[in-house]
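User: Predict the complex with heme C.
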Amino acid sequence: MVSLSSLPIAFRALFSSFLILIGVGYLMALSYMYLVVIEPHQQMGEGLVAGISDQYHGLPNGQTLIESALMGPMASHILVADRASILQWVHEGAKAGGYRQVAPIFAANCAICHMADAQSIPPLTSFEAVQRVSKTDTGTSISDLAKVSHILKSAEFSATFLRLVACARSRRATVR
Ligand code: HEC
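Assistant: Here is the predicted structure with heme C placed in the model:
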């Protein structure tokens, strides 16, 4: 059986650096999960598992993101009566027809932070934008997850492939 110690130094360096890269990637993923998922949910009083579950599985009982926000962290930004109007519209299916009645509530209470070009929070300035957070929340989509991990994986495998080619070339040079 081939063991790491019997391989030439270039291949040992190659495989070791691949393992180190994977290890660093794993630690980065854990810190990302802590900063982006766990900590913000803990600030809303949720436990570790509940936070991760909300993010990746979606809210329990088919809740919408807007309802959980309005009943939780966003409750202080809106009058109870206005909140009731929005929730009624959401429960009736968040249809385009009724948007005209609730649009001024979003404009007056939410748009100051949830601007059209908001990056880290959902914009709430148009029907399409509001509709996106008014659907049953099913967690981060597979395509969003794939986008991030795809980039990281491609970077890792191209780096390893290039190193493999470099190793093979340097070995050929020393053999000759
Ligand atoms: C003072 C600024 C501010 C105002 C006003 C505000 N929000 Fe937010 N909103 C935030 C921030 C910051 C976050 C992200 C952090 C968080 O989830 O607490 C957020 C998050 C959200 C989210 C997404 C939660 C998630 O988990 O992704 C929704 C939905 C939301 N707000 C709805 C509203 C609605 C509806 C209103 C108006 C009634 C409103 N917000 C008013 C700042 C604001």
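The chain has a mean pLDDT of 88.
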